[in-house]
Amino acid sequence: MLTEKGYIEEQTLNELIDTYENKIGPRNGAQVIAKAWVDPEFKKWLLKDATAAIASMDFEGRQGEHMVAVENTPDVHNMVVCTLCSCYPWPVLGLPPTWYKSAPYRSRVVIDPASVLAEFGVQLPEQTRISVWDSTAEVRYLVIPMRPENSDHLSANELQELVNRNSMIGTALATPVNGVST
Ligand code: FE
To answer: Structure pTM?
Structure first.
C-alpha cells in the first residue's frame, strides 16, 4: 500500500527487508555472546553498559539504542518478553520470531515462565530461579546464556555456532558441544 501510494520506493523497502533478514540477525548476537564467553573484560563491560559494548562491535541502530545484558548462571535463568507488543533488540537478534509476538507467550511467560520453558524443551535444575525481563520501547534485553560444558577448547568463532537465537531470548540453552558426554 505504501509503495502504491508513492510514500516509499519499492527498492528502499526491499533493502530494508534484506537488511533485517540477512545482514542483521541472531548471528550478530552470537558474536557478542561468544566474545563475552572468551573475554572476561568484555563480559564485564557488556553487563555494565551493553549498548556501548555491543556498539564497539559495530552492532547498533534502531531498536538497540538502550541495551541491557543479563547473564544466566546456575542460580538464575533470564527470559525476555515484551508484554505490551513485540519490542526486540534488532541490531543483535534481527526480527522477532512469530511466537515472541504472540499473545500466549507474552501473557504466560510472566505468569508461569517454567511451564513456558518446558514447552520449549528446557528443564532447569531445581535451584535455578527464573527472572523475566519486560522490554519497553526504550530498553531491550540480551540474555547471555551459560557457556556449554566441555567447550574450553573452542575458539570464539566455534563458540558462536553454539549460540542459538532462542538462547539469547532465554527460551533455550546454548547448544551443547557435539559428541562430548557431560
Ligand atoms: Fe513492544
So the answer is: 0.88
